[in-house]
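Moderator note: this is an archived Q&A kept for reference. The question asked for a predicted structure of one protein chain; the sequence and the answer are reproduced below.
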Amino acid sequence: MIRDFWVENYLSIRDRQSISFVSKSASDFLNVEITPGVYLNKIGILYGANASGKSNMLFAIQNIFNILYNSQTDISEKVTTARPFELTKDKSTKMHITFYAESIRYDYDVEYFTDYIVKETLYYYPNGSKSLFYERTFKGEGIQAEIKFGQSLDLKVETQKTLKENTLNNHSVLSAYRKVSLKEDIQPIATLFRWIEEHIHEINADNVKNPVEELKEVFNDEKRKKFYQTMLKKADLNISDFRPITVPRIISQKMRKMILDDATMPESVKNNFLNDAYEDIVFTNNSEDGDFEIPRQLQSMGTMQYIKSLHYLYDLITGNYIYLLDELDEDMHYDLVLYFLNVFLFNSDKSQLVFTSQETALLAEDLLNEHRDLVWFVEKGHKTASSVYSRADSYGLHKNLSLYNSYKIGRLGAKPELGSPFINLD
C-alpha cells in the first residue's frame, strides 16, 4: 500500500505536489492498520475539470514504480518517463514514494533527466528501524554510477559487483535484477521486485483482454465465475449468467478475395478474418415470462463497462493490489459506481484504489463528507498552467458543510470557468 507520494516537474506538474494516504483516525472498513498505529486509506479520489491534471498524478505514481521495475538493455534508451513540465523542461524530474510491501516500509527517492538517473535512494524498515537498501549517484556519461548497498542486505561482494555492472545510467538499480541470475543472497532484492511485479497494476489494469477473452477465462474459473454471476445479479441488470459461444462467419467470395489480395495485411490478421467461425459471449437475461439470451453486442455500454470493472474488483477483494483507475465512473450509473466502492471497501483487506472521477454526486455522500482525507481537488493554475492538488480536509470547511455544495459554488476550485453561453462569431 502507498503511504505518501510527491512529484515535481512532470507533465502538468511544475512545483512539488503530494498526496498522502495516512488516515487521521482508525476505521473498520476505510483504512488498514498497516503497522502498529499507522492507518492507510484504501481509496483516494481525484476531482477536477478536464485538462486539470487529474490523470497526471496517476501517471506519475505508475511512473515511479515503472522506474523501479523496468530495466534497459541499451544505454541510448530513455529513462522510463513522460515529458517534464514544458516551462522547466531543462530541469530534472523528482519523485518520492513511501509504500509497504508485505508490511515492510520502503522509502524511494529518484531524480532524473530523460537520458539518465541523477540519483536514487531506497531505504527500508526490515525490523521497524530505517536501513539503507541502496543508493546510487550519476558519475558521468558512459561511466558506471556510484552504487552503495546497505549492510543489512548481506549481499556478497560478487553479487554487488554483478548488479553494479548491469545497472545502466538510464534505469534503477533494483530493475537490474531483471537482467541477472544470482544466488540466494539476492533474496531481499528479488522479494521487492516480485512484489512490484505482482501487486502494482498499470493505469486501468495491465494487458487488459478484450471482453470475449476475459469472460471466457472467467467462465472456466469457478470461483471467479461465481463472483461475476453474483455481481451481475446484484447490479439489477436482469442478467443472471453468461456463456461463450461459437458463431459462424459468413464471408462473400468477393470479400474473401479482397482480403487474400491485400499485400499490406499480415497473415495472422488474414487468417482471423477468414476463419469460418468466431467466438463470442451471450448473456442470460431474466423476465417474468422466462429467461432468454442476448448477444454481447446488444448490451449497453454501461453494462459492458460494469462487467469490465469486475476484473478490478475481483482482484481488489481477493488479494492485496494497488489499482490506478482513470475515470472509474465512465458510462456507469452513479448507483453502480457507489456500489462498486462499497463492495471494495467492505470486502477488501490491504488493497488500495486510486482513481479520478467526474461524478460530483459522490461528494454528497456521508462516506466522503465524514472522511475528507480521501478526496483531492485538482486545479490548473492560470498563470503557469501547472496542476495544483489540494486535499479536501485542507480547506477548513465546517463538518456540517457539504463537499458537494461547496464544490458546486466554486469554493473548492477545481471547476472549469466556462464564461457566457452566448457566442458572437462576428
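Archived answer notes: The chain has eleven helices and 17 strands.
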